[in-house]
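From the shared-data thread, chain only:
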Amino acid sequence: MIYVINADGTHPRLLRSLSHAWPGAGVPAWSRDGKRILYSTYCWFGTCGQAPTGAQLFTIGADGKSPRQLTRVSGNAMGGRWSPDGKQIVFIRNPRVGPTGDVYTMNATGTAIRRVTNALDLGARNPGWGS
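Structure, as tokens:
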């Protein structure tokens, strides 16, 4: 489930209840303009009632509307972060459904996926763009 909450801890609001197939919502990240939230879904523990699916990247509007699946890859796509201009996303992908992987970038629409590193054993997690 994905919630938003005031900075002082008050007024939690459910944005998205996830399906049984993808019960987790990992590493959420607000877009720079505050209009969308990027997150990954996953089924780490057991099979979640189906074959393991790995993680995929999604966005959802800050109002809880307009969910959008960005990746449809084998294995895991996770740990996404928006670029400073909000036009691209950096993330980790592992075709073996492992917790780490190579660094990739893509357009914020989920198009033009590009591999940046080529060493699955690099142990990369939660990449960022820097300042």
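The mean pLDDT is 82.
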